[in-house]
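Action item from last week, closing it out:
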Amino acid sequence: MNRRMASKGLLLNAAMLGLLPLAAKADDIKDHLRHYLNHEKNETASVTVAFGAGLNTAQPGNSANHHILPREIALHRGGVVTFMVAGFHQIIVFAQGVVQGQIAVPPAGLFIYDPAPPDSLPILYLGLRPAGGPPPGIAATSDPSNAQNRIESVSFSEPGDYLVICYVRSHFVDGMWAMVKVR
């Protein structure tokens, strides 16, 4: 090998070493772009869920209204579930790990817990109370009423399984619950 080729080789190696930090930065940019494109394609970054169907006839066994669709909701960490509430319902999203069997349903009453759920069952989100009032300190309303047909969005920042129920006692008894599985 002559001197000229050796100096070109050293120069090329030096240039490559200088580009290594740029290559690492390019990988970070590609990961960020991939994450952004997945959200843009809506690959479980945002899910719309039917919370009731608006056929609120206030009778037990009203399967047309007392449901959450889909029952199993898949979501990426950091994603959002948009609940389209149709009818007289209240959303509770329990913190990860709470299961349906832990819900103590009283024999009577409009809501499962009144005035609020016990501390032993941690809550991620307590939705708007139909027709207003506490908790969490929302003023009672009649015009416009928040009793029916509204949208509530909930963000999930940590992986896990989250139980979602309707706080209205007879609706939960009729099977109005779902699971959000965040990965």
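Closing note: The two ends are 56 Å apart (CA to CA).
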